[in-house]
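Extended Data, panel c. Modelled sequence:
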Amino acid sequence: MSELRAGTEGALRRIVQERQSEHRIPGVAAGVARSGSLLWSGGVGAADLDRPEAAPDEDTQFLVASITKTFTAVMTMQLRDEGKLSLDDTVDSFVPESKHEGVTIRQVLSHVTGMQREPVGDIWETLQYPDREQLVSGWNDAERILKPHHRHHYSNLSYAMLGEVVARLDGRSYADSLQARLLDPLSLRRTTMGLSAPHAVGYYVPPFSDVPVREPVVDLLATAPAGGGQAQRPPLARTRRPEASAATGRSHDAPVRVPERLDEPSGWEARLVTSHRSAGSHRRAVVQVEHAVGVGVGSVQGELGLIAAVEEQLLA
């Protein structure tokens, strides 16, 4: 698959336009890549409603939110490969102030720590986020609500602490580690830990008034390793570039994952899906590993059901 089939480009653009209209989304950008090359991209609507004539394009940044956890996980595995940590090491071995014993790096990566989902306090309502000292203090006050490995329980708090582990082992800020370990080696110049123009404005569209409300721009501070990234659409789609192998020290032809415990699922899909949604934005990336096809979508508000439709068109 070196290029899209005749008629596919028109079909993809029609799909994006239909979803944007159906879900009343201010702006949507989508792209399809193959082996590091962008095969198709398209943007409809507006990245900023103050400039309705300007649709989002290949250079428009979107909040990627929890896809930032992918970066945090990769850097953790780099540190593992460098011999600086083991996946069975505990968080408190690197953050001695931690009062929670036995929380392993492996558990954090897999969302099976049993720790509560969010940092202490109503941070998503107040939009007041903890600094590094406050994060550790809040971690100590947080509850371990489930037994480890008892069930999958998503935890932004745990991933924020994983970012703290990365920072401490590297002796620099999380943002500096991310820049040096991944963004610079991969030439991801438009992937940042803060908005950089041109970028999409986040909106919330209430279901009854149907009038877009601009979302505030916030600094996630010490919780950024769990969701503070920004990127333009092409990097979301280009997931199997050779330079990614050089940055991570892994062959891009290596297996995506290998089961390590008997109680893990026996069926391993040839697809990796990274997804996150919130009131103000939605971002999702899909990799069809078998065919090395990447799909990246960014929208300024809402869930579109777009990835499945694009994937169906590509793989039909």
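The first strand starts at residue 27 and ends at 34. This feature is highlighted in the accompanying rendering.
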